[in-house]
User: Fold Uroporphyrinogen decarboxylase from Pontibacter oryzae.
Amino acid sequence: MQLKNDLLIRAAKGETVERTPVWLMRQAGRILPEYRAVRESLSGFKELVETPELAAEVTIQPVDILDVDAAIIFSDILVVPEAMGCTYEMIEKRGPLFPNTIRTEADLKKLRVADPHEHLHYVLDAIKITKKALNGRVPLIGFAGAPWTILAYMVEGSGSKTFSQARGMLYTNPKLAHQLLRMITDTTIAYLKAQVEAGANLIQIFDSWAGILSPALYREFALPYISEMCDAITTVPVTVFAKGAFFAMEDFSKLNCETIGLDWNMDISKARKEVGPNKTLQGNMDPCLLYSSFENIQRETINMLKEFGPQRHIANLGHGVYPDTDPEKVKCFVQTVKEYGSIING
Assistant:
């Protein structure tokens, strides 16, 4: 199906765009009353993720309400460990909890390399429903977590400031870590390929806990698996968003992907220099800017756009939009990108 708005795809590929495209991580979520209305009618977050019609509905909401240039399928990176046999619970106001962690060879033997059509069919169904409902209005982004980030949750058992159990495994049992990373990578590659087959126009890989590893550990336990994932997705653009991995920008320049996401701590001009001219950059406004005045949001957004320049940039926040953000402030950010992004590209 021909896209009516293909700005995101063209920007990712480095083609000339008439204005800077914009979308937000976590745009389908708690900032929208319309999302909360759907969510409150269900038993919990997981029911929403696993009900394709409702996941599709909340995926499309920000396209209608916020006027963003892309939809991102409503799901979670933790559906991958669940599909592998390591189930999780989503505890309200606490985050994910894994009743059983992976810390020994015996734990590893209980896992499988998942078949996306069997174990993650609900996400693929949601993509198909969303694509049909969007009818080519904007691209649909599919996604998955990077293997290190998924391992971190499976070993730690929950979110953590340090992920000391997971990081400790890299030192105390690197063989087991690599075996687990291998299984996660094989599952995730099959899953992402299935998302593309179902209709995803672009793929984003989230390495949420990249920044807690040393550069040496990141290059041994994270980068090779991300590189393999990038090599495997050949028919749609790929974005790698590794939060806090400012030390790996030159490494990312060698990845077989189109776009590198920057978090708000990263210096734009430094990242551009290290990544080089052949990659698109995505980001990187501090989500907390959206707590400030409309005037401040407009000013800082224009400053960001000036620093990135008119081409090879996808405007976004440097992290997911926070749940207590006023949707009107988000609209201000989006509209400023659209208006000023047209001027600098014109």
About this structure: The chain has a mean pLDDT of 97. The longest helix spans residues 174-198. The longest strand covers residues 140-145. The chain is about 50% helix and 10% strand.
